[in-house]
Design a protein that fits this description.
Strand content: 25-35%
Largest sheet: 13 strands, mixed
Distance between the termini: 38 Å
Number of helices: 7
Structural class: alpha+beta
Radius of gyration: 25 Å
Order of helices and strands: HHHHEEEEEEEEEEEEEHEHEEHEE
CATH topology of the largest domain: Jelly Rolls
CATH class of the largest domain: Mainly Beta
Shape: globular
Number of strands: 18
Length: 322
């Protein structure tokens, strides 16, 4: 569930904030080979990342070059024999750029990084871990010397965790924590439930509520589903379906039409609507391109003898199934 008090995030602003964080890491006392490798990965992932980093670096380099220069003679208006330093002005510029880097840390820790409807994004973290954000998702990252913590505030994310036995990797989601060392797993959060699907390695899912005791350890292939109003359960879904969104697809494996419409609507501002209650439980299978609601509706209509109508910005699946 999205927190309405959180500020909206734009991809451009996220890139600028991340660039500031990476530059601060490079100039900080904790710089090492892993930080440098993480930066190279981040730069390769999106041309916008490199542009944001280059722009911030260029501005800081300009300040560094100008710090020792004096005001040109033609600009002096009093005491020509004296040398007027640019330091007060440049110190202000440097302070402003430092503030940008500090704000970058604050932004990523507090507001987090988000994707809009239909958008996906990859984050490379300083330790070599990676986060793949699905549509309409937001995470908040908090690293320190003793732990690596990520909060999934909304949506869905795939985590590839770099091994570091001294710093556990913890994903906080709703009233659960998912703890891993080196592993790959998917966490999804909605109003109705939370699910954790383990692809590789081993994770422990525990409750943060005093009313729930114990924890669940997952093996590869397990999916733990935690409904808001029911008992948690473990099943074994097809991994290709769970991660289909990483390939730009929505995999629908025999689910009801109402559920399939919910899945398709996650990726598009164009809403699919089922007009007749009789069609809600029709089984739907197959894979559809993310955001291609029109093709999905056309396929369902052709299969069950329904009609497709455009009403304003909505696509309505109308009629009674044959």
């Amino acid at each position: 569930m999205t927190n309405e008090m959180d500020p909206p995030a734009s991809p451009l602003f996220d890139q600028q904030a991340e660039a500031a964080v990476w530059l601060a890491r490079l100039r900080g006392p904790q710089r090492d080979a892993s930080v440098e490798r993480g930066l190279r990965r981040w730069l390769r992932e999106d041309p916008g990342n490199a542009l944001a980093f280059d722009e911030l670096t260029r501005r800081l380099e300009v300040v560094e070059r100008l710090k020792t220069r004096t005001l040109p003679a033609r600009w002096r208006v009093a005491q020509p024999a004296s040398r007027v330093s640019w330091r007060p002005v440049l110190s202000g510029v440097a302070a402003a750029l430092t503030a940008v880097m500090v704000f970058g840390f604050i932004y990523l820790r507090q507001a987090g990084v988000a994707t809009s409807v239909g958008e996906q994004r990859t984050m490379a973290l300083e330790d070599g871990s990676r986060i793949y954000l699905n549509t309409a998702s937001r995470v908040r990252v908090s690293y320190d010397d003793g732990s690596r913590r990520v909060e999934l505030m909304s949506g869905e994310a795939l985590f590839e965790v770099a091994k570091d036995a001294s710093r556990p990797f913890v994903v906080a989601v709703a009233d659960r924590t998912v703890t891993a060392l080196g592993t790959t797993f998917v966490v999804r959060r909605s109003d109705a439930q939370v699910s954790v699907t383990l692809m590789e390695g081993k994770v422990r899912v525990a409750s943060t509520s005093s009313e729930v005791t114990g924890s669940t350890v997952l093996a590869p292939g397990d999916r733990l589903t935690i409904p808001a109003d029911a008992t948690p359960a473990v099943d074994h879904p097809a991994m290709e379906a769970v991660t289909a969104w990483r390939r730009g697809l929505v995999a629908l494996d025999g689910m009801s039409l109402s559920h399939a419409v919910q899945e398709m609507n996650r990726y598009s501002q164009t809403r699919l609507i089922i007009e007749q209650a009789e069609a809600q439980q029709l089984p739907v299978g197959g894979s559809f391109r993310i955001g291609d609601s029109a093709s999905f509706a056309a396929a369902v209509a052709a299969t069950y003898g329904l009609q497709v109508e455009r009403r304003d910005d909505d696509i309505v699946i109308a009629g009674r199934p044959r």
